[in-house]
Amino acid sequence: MKILETPLKPEEVADLRVNEPFKVTGKIFTARDAAHEKLLDLAKKGKEAPFDLSAYPCFHCGPVMKKRGESWQVVSAGPTTSIRMEIFEDEFMEEYGTKIFVGKGGMGEKTSEALVQHGGVYAHFTGGAGSLMAGSVEEVEDVHYLEELGVPEAVWVLRVKEFGPLLVTMDSTGESIHRDISEEIDQNLQKELEKL
Amino acid sequence: MNPESLARDLVDPIKTSVTTLPEPTLAALKDAREKEDDGARVQLDAILEAVDIGRREEIPICQDTGTPTFYVQLGADYPAIDQLDEIKEAVRRAVQLATEEVPIRPNTVHPISGENPGDNTGRSIPWINWNITDGTDLRVTYLPKGGGSTNMSQLTMMTPGKGLEGVKELVLKRIASMEGKPCPPTVVGIGLGGSASIAMSLAKKSLLRPVGVRREDEEIADLEEELKQRANNLGVGPMGVGGETTVLDVKIEYDHRHPASYPVGITPQCWANRRTSFRITPEGDIVEVER
Prior knowledge:
Distance between the termini of chain A: 43 Å
Radius of gyration of chain B: 19 Å
Shape of chain A: globular
Number of helices of chain A: 7
Strand content of chain A: 25-35%
Radius of gyration of chain A: 17 Å
Number of strands of chain A: 9
CATH superfamily of chain A: Fe-S hydro-lyase, tartrate dehydratase beta-type, catalytic domain
CATH topology of chain A: fumarase
Order of helices and strands of chain B: HHHEHEEHEHEHHEEEE
Helix content of chain B: 25-40%
Largest sheet of chain B: 5 strands, mixed
CATH architecture of chain A: Alpha-Beta Barrel
CATH class of chain A: Alpha Beta
Number of helices of chain B: 8
Oligomer: heterodimer
Distance between the termini of chain B: 25 Å
Largest interface: A-B, 45 and 48 residues
Structural class of chain B: alpha+beta
Number of strands of chain B: 9
Largest sheet of chain A: 5 strands, mixed, barrel
C-alpha cells in the first residue's frame, strides 16, 4: 500500500485516484465544524494560521483524549461525518491550499469541484475504527483553540505512522465513488421493489 | 447491598461493552470480509483490526461510546427489590467512574443550553429501561448505541392497507437512503405495531437479540431473513463504499396495533454492535457476564 509522507508533495496527491488505498506518515491535523469556522474567520481577518495547513492532511474527527501529566494522549479517534463540512471545504482549500481531507461518508459536488481546481483528494477512513487510528499516533505535537472550542472541536496536531488504510473516494479528476454508488443503490432498490 | 462497591463492579461490564464485540457480530464481520474485495475489503480489514486493538489494548473501539443505556429484567420476587434506589444510584455512579477510567466520551448534552456535565449523566441518563418479569433474578444488558446510527432512525405511521408489502418497501427504501451514514454493515432493528412510541422502543429492543438468532415465530423469522437478503442486494456495502454486505442482520419485534394505525419503527445499529449482559445477585454481586 502506498505511503504518503508529509509535508505532502502536491503532485503525489494529484496523482491519487478513486479506489486507491494509501496511508499517511508524518503530521496531520483534526478539524470539525467549529475549527473550520474558526480558521476561516482568521483568514477573513487577514490573520495567519497557526501552522502551514497546505502541507498536511485535514482529518474530520472529534477524538477521545486523555491527559497524562502535561502531555496528551489519543485514546480513540475515528472519523466524523464529513458532509457537515461541505459548506466550508471549497473556501478552506482556496484560503489554505489543503490537499487531503479525511473523513467518512463522502462529500458533495461543491467539494468535488474544489478538489479538481486545487489538485486535492477526499479519502475515506473506516467509521468506528477509532482504536486503529489511535494506534498510529506516535505523538500529540500540539493543540490549538482547546480552551475556546473544547476537546472534540479543537485542532489537534498529531504525528502519525502509517495512518490508514485511507481509501480515495473523490479525486482531482472529478471522480466520486459516492456519486456513482448513490446511482447504483437507487437502481438496485428499484429492482428489489419490483420483485415485491 | 453497598451501592459504592456495586458501582465499582459495574465499570467492568461497561468497559467490556465498548472495548470488545460480541462473538456472533465478530464472526459475521469475518464472514463478510471473505466475501468482499477492493474498497469493501479495505473497510472490513480496518474494522477487524480496530476490534483487535480495542480488545488487546482495552480502549474503546469507536470514539463514540454511545448514550449509556441499561435494559433491566426485574423478577417480581427479586429478594433485594426494596433496594432499587441503591441500584439506580450505583448505575449512575458507575457511568461517572467509567467516563474517567475507561475512558468513555462525555456524551450527554442539555437539549436547550447545550451544556455537557462531562460525566455521561444528565436528566434521566443513564437511561434505565425497567421490565418486570416473573422469578427472582435481576438481569441487565448494557447497550451503548452511537449517535451516527441513531440519527438514521425513522418512525412511519404507515397506512394499514399497505400491509406487509408496505413494510418491506419502507425498510428497503430506508436502508438504501441511509447509504454509509450509519456505519454499515449494520444490524437493522425494526418495531412493528404497538403505538408510535412502542414501535420505536421495539425497534431498539430487537437489537438485544444476538446476530444470527431468529425469532421463534416462523413468519417473523422468515421476514427477518427475507429483508436481510434483499438489503444485501442494495449494494451499499461496508461503510457505503459498495459491496455485498450492507447489513449483518435484520431484527424484528412486534406488538398488536390499533386497527387504524400501522406504526413501523426503524433504528439501525452500526457494525460496532456493542452489548454486555449480566445478573446482579441480591447481595450486589455481578455474575454470569455474557457478551
